[in-house]
UniProtKB/TrEMBL annotation, chains A, B:
Protein name stated in the entry: DNA-binding response regulator
Domain of life: Bacteria
The keyword DNA-binding appears for this protein: yes
Response regulatory domain span: 3-120
Modified residues (4-aspartylphosphate): D54
GO BP term (any one): phosphorelay signal transduction system
Length: 202, 202
């Protein structure tokens, strides 16, 4: 029996998913909570096999932050993200949080049950409709340092501020920025921020 | 009408694909060749909209090399890779060659036709069954420099050789190697080469 913790803020969806998963003979929803913080607390008590977490939950912890904390505190519990959309930035954060899977709410119920079984077995699962998004993510042309610099541009810092923050000279930062704009085939820094954000690279 | 160049070394598959695509009212196979070199030559003459290229073809140019050359010489021609398996290394090379799409031969015929239409329209297409492979590829923890170093280890070079090749000190190379082994959670350098090769990161 695979023991499931479900976190979803919308009560109707939470109820529907609980009922749906309960129809599977090998799946059991041992807890159904409404926030990321409740999921972290519940995981520590229930020690579920798989935590199925909605990404967009209100409160201090969204689903991805909850996944990262559950991974750190309850290593035996694997995590499956469930979301309404596959934004590249979410997929990137899910990678960084080392989640076991990432499924869209548009997936057929039997695919969700199968994804839970795969994640419980230690496999990695990604919604097939996100194949191209994942491919684009893999196409990141920026070095980690260039991504750091561009992230600070996105935060509104100018070259001297970025230089101070990263302990570089302003000239070095400007060289990075020129390289970034060229690599991304962008019109300017602002355009580079837009392109890299859309692609999930920063 | 979408004009297609097909390159596939196995005559039976080449014939079957030509017949199959010919059934679609908006697709026309204008050339069907048996090698990468023939595909490059034919693309320059026929100026097709889409080149559908098998990856594993004998001869000097495999499908991915042919795709890169067609992309450089006939910019109006988009490329769709067709292969029997989705090795991470192939997917990575396909990204680097900036191909328009990557489909498995196991895909249903109607999905292949749809993929050709999407690629012709400038979209990117990836076989849904390769979603997890693409995700793993996006998870590359190595910096470009670390990947360079590890690729040379895979080529059989030791630290002093790598240092000479990359104009570094042997100590710096050894620091890179320690970082790589740690990042990949590998047992040793050989294990790191195996892990990174399987994941398509080098």
């Amino acid at each position: 029996m695979i023991r499931i913790l479900l976190a979803e803020d919308q009560a109707v969806i939470r109820g529907a998913l609980t009922a749906l998963l309960g129809l599977e003979p090998d799946l059991e929803v041992v807890a159904a909570v409404e926030s990321g913080a409740a999921a972290v607390a519940s995981a520590a008590v229930e020690l579920p096999d798989v935590a199925v977490l909605d990404i967009d939950m209100p409160g201090e912890l969204d689903g991805l932050e909850a996944a990262a904390r559950i991974g750190a505190r309850v290593p035996s519990c694997r995590t499956l993200m469930l979301t309404g959309h596959g934004k590249p930035a979410h997929l990137k954060r899910a990678l960084a949080a080392r989640v076991g899977g990432f499924m869209l709410k548009t997936a057929p119920p039997e695919e969700l049950a199968e994804a839970i079984r795969d994640v419980a077995a230690g496999k990695r699962v990604l919604d097939p409709s996100l194949a191209v998004t994942a491919w684009d993510l893999a196409d990141n042309p920026l070095t980690p340092r260039e991504a750091d610099v561009l992230r600070l541009v996105a935060d509104g810092l100018d070259a001297p501020d970025i230089a101070a923050r990263l302990h570089l000279t302003a000239g070095t930062v400007r060289n990075y920025l020129t390289a970034i704009v060229t690599k991304l085939n962008a019109r300017n820094r602002t355009d580079a921020v837009r392109l890299a954000t859309e692609a999930g690279w920063i």
